[in-house]
UniProtKB/TrEMBL annotation, chain A:
A biological process term (GO) from this entry: protein import into nucleus
Keyword Ubl conjugation: no
Name of this chain's protein: IMA5 protein
Organism, as annotated: Anhinga anhinga (Anhinga)
Keyword Repeat: yes
Keywords, sorted A to Z: Protein transport, Repeat, Transport
Positions annotated as ARM repeat: 115-158, 158-186
UniProtKB/TrEMBL annotation, chain B:
Intracellular or extracellular location(s): Cytoplasm; Nucleus
Keyword Ion transport: no
Pfam families, A to Z: CAS_CSE1, Cse1, IBN_N
InterPro entries named in the record: ARM-like, ARM-type_fold, Importin-beta_N, XPO2_C, XPO2_central
A Gene Ontology molecular function term of the record: small GTPase binding
Gene (name only): Cse1l
SUPFAM superfamilies: ARM repeat (SSF48371)
Family: Belongs to the XPO2/CSE1 family.
Protein name from the UniProt record: Exportin-2
GO annotation, biological process: protein export from nucleus; protein import into nucleus
GO cellular component, one term: nuclear envelope
Cytoplasm is among the record's keywords: yes
Start and end residues of each Importin N-terminal domain: 29-102
Keywords of this entry: Cytoplasm, Nucleus, Protein transport, Transport
Length: 517, 971
């Protein structure tokens, strides 16, 4: 969950009329701590090859028999692998691969403990024994698909250079398996990612991309390339990024969904960073393609495309404008109403960063008809999405001019916003209280503070704010207290103005201009 | 301090002394303990005592002393010495958990509190083994120990419910989850199993249920910030068990107490909270479980009794349903007609019933009842929860719900009709039901603002509300009377006017009811009706329509103030004020009696003012009496003075601080009513008003300034002739005020009145000093507010004495002073002046400087002529400059004009805005054009040349517009 760095600072800046919109934009925060389960719709970091295994067992029984697969014990495997009989080595490697490919509880740890990884790496170099190379590559792929320790074991076994040279193997299935293994290694983290890049993995990988590359193979390549863009701290080296970017742009035009998806993921990684990195992507002109893709019905495409666009609008006003010019505002309404909560949430996060921009961007947001879906989301959305929508409204009221805030209130934002004061999340409550205070500031400027008071009370907001005066969180209770003191105390005073105005005795009769909330 | 028996003995003796009722013994002992608490081993001595002392009272005393010691000293504050030595800290942390767990409950609670204080500082980094130590105890099987651990854990973890997300916080939570979540889950399962094995053992069950409550609370804390992976994976276990606990009942756990919630209720209530948490935050993951919880919770509601002890559980449970039924994707759970009927019948209706506890409050604690019922402080009540559920259901099912309830309302009304004296509560519920069904939005000020169109409010009013209010006895079924009056009050905007008019005499009649609630509601309802607006900004109910009722209304209102319990009833007093204001001159015949009653009341409450609102409305009523009467007959002011001055004198003499600001305002009003020279009775008081002691109280300042202004307006000549020796004192007040950033604007009000009204010769000798004083403030501590007031004042001065006099007095204080003020203050700041009259004064004053001040034409000041004109045009045409320099942003709101904490301004003592240039100048732009024309005739050619050299084009264009409008040209 993104968080604004210094909340109180944000408000102070506002009151002094010297707001800094960059401070409002919320980067995808570095989540070092996560309580939740890893997100299901993220791109997969590492993959184990189990599919073939299923084929082996279910469909190709006959073939299995022909190959006369013999079940070997771990001791027998060690013995055979370390022996000198190529036939036995192949059998043992195959048996290892088979164990590692079974669906449940592959014995990765035990295999590592057997100490046969160096041997398997050695087999990768047996150019004269393609079957052995293949089985070894497969087995190592599956070991590398495990935990970081597992990957580490493969890398320390010296697999990186061996796999890289196998990229140019004349046997496509070996080359493909190597791509896969390298993807698993790259996915482990920035350290191995950069180790691969330093070993010059990119040129041979890119060389594999061609119009005739089979789709399945191309999927693997795209995925591995995307893993080479992944992770921050540090970012992948700039020249590597620049080499890969044009290829991703091409791949995004492919007709295969998985290829498009992984290319979009790659773009999303490359935009997940400082403004300089975002700029490199913006400069390629890929934003309009991303907007097209975000409107696709397939979740696997929509999700990373939205992620990438969301990242872009965390950038400068100009970068945000580039996304607006590419048409992002036209697709956001649908995304805000998407059935899937995570899409709603990402869309609302994106919107919140656009709302953090200058007035003229906020104006575009209004003219593109985003207020009704935003209000709808605030009212009925999933809680995660509601939280982001609250931020969007907060940013809007901080940066928007009086007319824009009035427009927001007219769109019916108050009711759902006030209802969310019951949210079980202190930060959200605080942001809402600040937002209400912003709306009051705007209302005061047009002399409508009193009508806003009535509206807030009608919507049961007043009693909710009153109840928050006893909240356990200090900042929440103080913010609630401030609002009450400033706008809702001494309810009798305005009331004391005479109700009639026939003669000069009553000066309450000044008609205020219309304020159609 | 050594850990010796001797020290233990000494400590025991001092602890014993701290329990002594005699302060002479207790205090020194407390002091002694404080003086030694910095010594090493002191906390360890306490721990030893609380464990090993022979006397139980010393054990408890030591544990409390220990906890307070920890509270005061454990935190290490930066730049302050560490108050507990490191070895003691280590020893405490090593021993406190086992010690707590082996202690009896009384001591356990103290130690548990101490642990959470230490934990707040040290956990997790500096107390890494705390968690393991706690978790290990789960296996002990001793639930006394386990509950100790759980309680401590709860006090350590409950902050997760309200703190903001941060890396630090989440790191801690993750650590806790890793160590705690699985053992807690296992304990949860084991405890539930034990509950079924011990299903027949009441004392065992009590301990086990205490554990379950704590476990459920811990679940809430641990799941609050986000849904932890562990709990997502184990949702089945938790939710299935929570669900079955919700449906569980055991006779052995039922309590006889009607008020206090029992263990079963507390547990179920917490489970409702847990379910609500998941439903709100983790809807996606919780969806499969939610329908079961809805069913269980509503079954729970159906089977739970009316006793007060169930209130929290019931209102929590209803709120859960209310929050779920509003969500579009759960709509289907409620959609079925039978479901809806059953919820309405079995959940909503029973919880709307008027209970014995309500009846008690109605009779014996009416203030509290009114506050809850009228002012909406009923958030946690069952009625309120039921009402929220109705509103929630109406979001999707307004039609069906209204239909179902209509049936109920009818049958309840029939029940009532059969035997009103027995079944009146049925009617009460029916009215409440109609009210909650019909009201969609409501405010204190306007009542219901949006109503359910499916409910025929008027019909119900005519058929069921009016008959009750028309009944001969105002004291019969007081609750129903109060309901009926409240109905009129809140639906006043929905019921047609003719029905309201029919109600007015009924309400007036009920002012006589004995029940405090009933006559208070009647007064409040009348007050609300009288503030309703009709067309053209008039009141909906006119004075003419009220004519037949004036006498009875006034009589009953004042009589109501004599009813027991209502002698200072603010609702009645407010109704009196509002009636006066509505009825205007038709109250005049009754004024002699009214003012007598008001002064008597004033005299009585001034002995001990305790109801600020009541007092305020009382003074407002007095003001209204004066204004209304004197408007028709100005001479009547004397009779008011006669009636009031006695009491006022007493208030002033007795220094009744709450009332003095009001008295000054009423006196101002009276004085302003005089058309002729100021009466001598006022003059006698004049010197007293200048007493510094009065000006020391901030609340007095605004009304006193106002009063002095009234003196100056009506009696400037008298002051000049008969009280000339008081002028320095008067100016002293001005000086006092001008010295304060908060009150300087009040000082200027006073000064402006002095300049405007006093004969010039009477203040001649002080003028220079006045300016010097102002220049000093300007030099040393100017603020925007000060500058604004200053600008208004100097221009007013110029208008009164002429622009030349202004220039002369400035330059007599210091050469070229006038030019400096023009250049540094007037020209750059004039844009900040706000207020129509203030701007007009400045415009006329500057016009004078431009056109009637020869030095502006032929000295070094000439170069300022065009910039000054440009600034004046800016004042006319540019929007007000409301920028405030940075440092002033932080001046408190109390410092800005118009706001005084201790000052209660009376609306009906209000003063009309005074425009000192009103008669002289109507349109300041035309006035400028004419004045320029006059100047240009006097020195032809000069003005156009000055304009053409440096006035900017836009300003020139505006100016040409003024000249055209005035039909003049410049020569």
């Amino acid at each position: 969950m993104p968080v604004v760095k210094d909340h109180s600072g944000r408000m102070r800046k506002f009151k002094n009329k010297g707001k800094d919109t960059d401070a409002l934009r919320r980067q995808r925060a570095e989540v070092s701590i996560e309580l939740r389960k890893a997100k299901k719709d993220e791109q997969i970091l590492k993959r184990r090859s189990i599919l073939f295994c299923l084929v082996d067992e279910n469909l190709s029984l006959g073939e299995e028999k022909r190959n006369e697969i013999i079940q070997l014990s771990l001791e027998e495997i060690v013995e055979a692998v370390n022996g000198s009989n190529p036939e036995l080595q192949l059998q043992a490697t195959q048996a290892t691969r088979r164990m590692l490919s079974r669906q449940k509880d592959p014995p990765i740890n035990q295999i590592i403990e057997l100490g046969i990884i160096p041997k398997l790496v050695e087999f990768l170099t047996c150019a004269d024994n393609a079957p052995l190379q293949f089985e070894a590559a497969w087995a190592l792929t599956n070991i590398a698909s495990g935990t970081s320790d597992h990957t580490k074991a493969v890398v320390e076994g010296g697999a990186i250079p061996a796999f890289i040279s196998l990229l140019s193997s004349p046997h496509m299935h070996i080359s493909e398996q190597s791509v896969w293994a390298l993807g698993n290694i790259a996915g482990d983290g920035p350290l191995y990612r950069d180790a691969l890049i330093n070993c010059n993995v990119i040129p041979p990988l890119l060389a594999l991309v061609s119009p005739v590359t089979p789709v399945g193979f191309l999927r693997n390549i795209t995925w591995t390339l995307s893993n080479l863009c992944r992770n921050k701290n540090p970012y992948p080296p700039l020249d590597a990024v620049k080499k890969m970017l044009p290829v991703f742009i091409c791949l995004m035009e492919h007709e295969d969904k998985d290829i498009i998806s992984d290319s979009c993921w790659a773009i999303s990684y490359l935009t997940d960073g400082c403004n300089d990195r975002i700029q490199i992507v913006v400069d390629t002109g890929v934003l309009s393609r991303l907007v097209e893709l975000v409107a696709r019905p397939e979740l696997i495409i929509m999700t990373p495309a939205l992620r990438a666009l969301g990242n872009v609008v965390t950038g400068t006003d100009e970068q945000t404008q580039a996304a607006i010019d590419a048409g992002i505002l036209a697709v956001l309404p649908c995304l805000l109403q998407h059935a899937k909560p995570t899409i709603q949430k990402e869309a609302a996060w994106t919107l919140s960063n656009i709302a953090a921009g200058p007035c003229w961007q906020i104006q575009q947001l209004i003219t593109s008809g985003l207020l009704p879906p935003l209000v709808e989301l605030l009212d009925k959305g999933d809680f995660k999405a509601q939280k982001e929508a609250v931020w969007a409204v907060a940013n809007f009221t901080t940066g928007g001019n009086v007319e824009q805030v009035v427009e927001l209130v007219r769109s019916g934002v108050l009711k759902p916003l006030l209802n969310l004061l019951l949210a079980k999340d202190s930060k959200t409550i605080l942001v809402i209280l600040d937002t209400i205070s912003n709306i009051f500031l705007a209302a005061e400027k047009v002399g409508e503070a009193e009508r806003l008071c009535v509206l807030v009370e009608e919507l049961d907001g007043l009693e909710k704010i009153e109840a928050l005066q006893t909240h356990d969180n200090n900042m929440v209770y103080r913010a609630a207290l401030n609002l009450i003191e400033r706008y809702f105390s001494g309810e009798e005073t305005p009331d004391l103005q005479p109700g009639t105005g026939q003669d000069g005795l009553y000066d309450f009769s000044v008609e205020k201009q219309d304020f159609n909330f | 301090m050594e850990l010796s028996d001797a020290n233990l003995q000494t400590l025991t003796e001092y602890l014993k002394k701290t329990l002594d009722p005699d302060p002479a013994i207790r205090r020194p002992a407390e002091k002694f303990l404080e003086s030694v608490e910095g010594s090493q081993n002191y906390p360890l001595l306490l721990l030893t005592l609380l464990e090993k002392s022979q006397e139980n009272v010393i054990k408890v005393c030591a544990s409390v002393t220990f906890k307070n010691y920890i509270k005061r000293n454990w935190r290490i504050v930066e730049d302050e010495p560490n108050k507990i030595c490191e070895s003691d800290r280590i020893a405490i942390k090593a021993n406190i958990v086992p010690l707590m767990l082996s202690s009896p409950e009384q001591i356990q609670k103290q130690l548990s509190d101490a642990i959470s204080i230490i934990g707040r500082e040290d956990f997790p980094q500096k107390w890494p083994d705390l968690l393991t130590e706690m978790v290990n105890r789960f296996q002990s099987g001793d639930f006394h120990v386990i509950n100790g651990v759980l309680r401590t854990a709860h006090s350590l973890f409950k902050r997760y419910r309200h703190e903001f997300k941060s890396n630090e916080l989440w790191t801690e939570i993750k650590l806790v989850l890793d160590a705690f979540a699985l053992p807690l889950t296992n304990l949860f399962k084991a405890t539930i199993e034990l509950c079924s094995t011990h299903a027949n053992d009441a004392s065992a069950l009590k301990v086990l249920f205490s554990s379950l409550i704590l476990i459920a609370k811990l679940f809430y804390s641990l799941n609050f910030q986000d849904l932890p992976e562990f709990f997502e994976d184990n949702m089945e276990t938790w939710m299935t068990n929570f669900h079955s606990l919700l449906t569980l009942d055991n006779k052995l756990l039922q309590t006889d107490d009607e008020e206090e919630a029992g263990l079963l209720e507390l547990l179920k209530s917490q489970i409702c909270d847990n379910a609500a948490l998941y439903a709100q935050k983790y809807d996606e993951e919780f969806q499969p479980y939610l329908p079961r919880f809805v069913t269980a919770i509503w079954n729970l509601l159906v089977t739970t009794g009316q006793e007060v002890k169930y209130d929290l559980l019931v209102s929590n449970a209803i709120q859960f349903l209310a929050s779920v039924c509003e969500r579009p994707h759960y709509k289907h759970l409620f959609e079925d007609q039978n479901t809806l009927t059953s919820i309405c019948e079995k959940v909503i209706v029973p919880n709307m019933e008027f209970r014995a506890a309500d009846e008690e409050a109605f009779e014996d604690n009416s203030e509290e009842y009114i506050r809850r019922d009228l002012e909406g402080s009923d958030i946690d009540t069952r009625r309120r929860a039921a009402c929220d559920l109705v509103r929630g259901l109406c979001k999707f099912f307004e039609g069906p719900v209204t239909g179902i309830f209509s049936g109920y309302v009818n049958s309840m009304l029939q029940e009532y009709a059969k035997n009103p004296s027995v079944n009146w509560k049925h009617k009460d519920a029916a009215i409440y039901l109609v009210t909650s069904l019909a009201s969609k939005a409501q405010t204190q000020k306007h009542g219901i603002t949006q109503a359910n169109e499916l409910v025929n409010l008027t019909e119900f009013f005519v058929n069921h509300i009016q008959p009750d209010l028309k009944s001969a006895s105002v004291n019969e079924f007081p609750v129903l009377k109060a309901d009926g009056i409240k109905y009129i009050m809140i639906f006043r905007n929905q019921v047609p006017k003719e029905q309201l008019l029919v109600s007015v005499p009924l309400l007036i009649n009920h002012l006589q009811a004995e029940s405090i609630v009933v006559h208070t509601y009647a007064a409040h309802a009348l007050e609300r009706l009288f503030t309703m607006r009709g067309t053209n900004n008039t009141t909906l109910i006119t004075a003419a329509e009220m004519a037949p009722f004036v006498e009875v209304l006034l009589t009953n209102l004042f009589k109501a103030l004599t009813l027991p319990g209502s002698s200072e009833n603010e609702y009645i007093m407010k109704a009196i004020m509002r009636s006066f204001s509505l009825l205007q001159e038709s109250i005049i015949p009754y004024i002699p009696s009214v003012i007598t009653q008001l002064t008597q009341k004033l005299l009585a409450v001034s002995k001990n003012p305790s109801k600020p609102h009541f007092n305020h409305y009382m003074f407002e009523s007095i003001c209204l009496s004066i204004r209304i009467t004197c408007k028709a007959n100005p001479d009547a002011v004397g009779s008011f003075e006669e009636a009031l001055f006695m009491v006022f004198t007493e208030i002033l003499q007795n220094d009744v601080q709450e009332f003095i600001p009001y008295v000054f305002q009423v006196m101002s009003l009276l004085l302003e009513m005089h058309k002729n020279e100021i009466p001598s009775s006022y003059m006698a008081l004049f010197p007293h008003l200048l007493q510094p002691v009065l000006w020391e109280r901030t609340g007095n300042i605004p009304p006193l300034v106002r009063l002095l202004q009234a003196y100056l307006e009506r009696g400037a000549n008298t002051i000049a002739s008969a009280a000339a020796d008081k002028i320095p004192g008067l100016l002293g007040v001005f000086q006092k005020l001008i010295a304060s950033k908060a009150n300087d604007h009040q000082g200027f009000y006073l000064l402006n009145s002095i300049i405007e009204h006093m004969p010039p010769e009477s203040v001649d000798q002080y003028r220079k000093q006045i300016f010097i004083l102002l220049f000093q403030r300007l030099q040393n501590s100017k603020t925007t507010k000060f500058i604004k007031s200053f600008l208004v004042f100097i221009n007013l001065y110029g208008i009164k004495y002429g622009a030349l006099a202004l220039q002369e007095i400035f330059d007599s204080i210091q050469p070229k002073m006038f030019g400096m003020v023009l250049e540094k203050i007037i020209i750059p700041e004039i844009q900040k002046v706000s207020g129509q009259v203030e701007k007009k004064i400045c415009a006329v004053g500057i016009t004078k400087i431009l056109t009637e001040c020869p030095p502006m034409m032929d000295t070094e000041y000439t170069k300022l002529w065009t910039p000054l004109l440009q600034a004046l045009i800016g004042l006319f045409e540019l929007p007000e400059d409301d920028t405030i320099p940075d440092e002033e942003h932080f001046i408190d709101i109390e410092d800005t004009p118009g706001y005084q904490t201790a000052f209660s301004q009376l609306a009906f003592a209000g003063k009309k805005e005074h425009d000192p240039v009103g008669q002289m100048v109507n349109n300041p732009r035309i006035h400028l054009a004419q004045s320029l024309h006059k100047l240009s005739t006097a020195c032809p050619g000069r003005v156009p040349s000055m304009l053409s050299t440096s006035l900017n084009a836009e300003a020139l264009q505006y100016l040409q517009g003024y000249l055209q409008a005035a039909s003049v040209t410049l020569l």
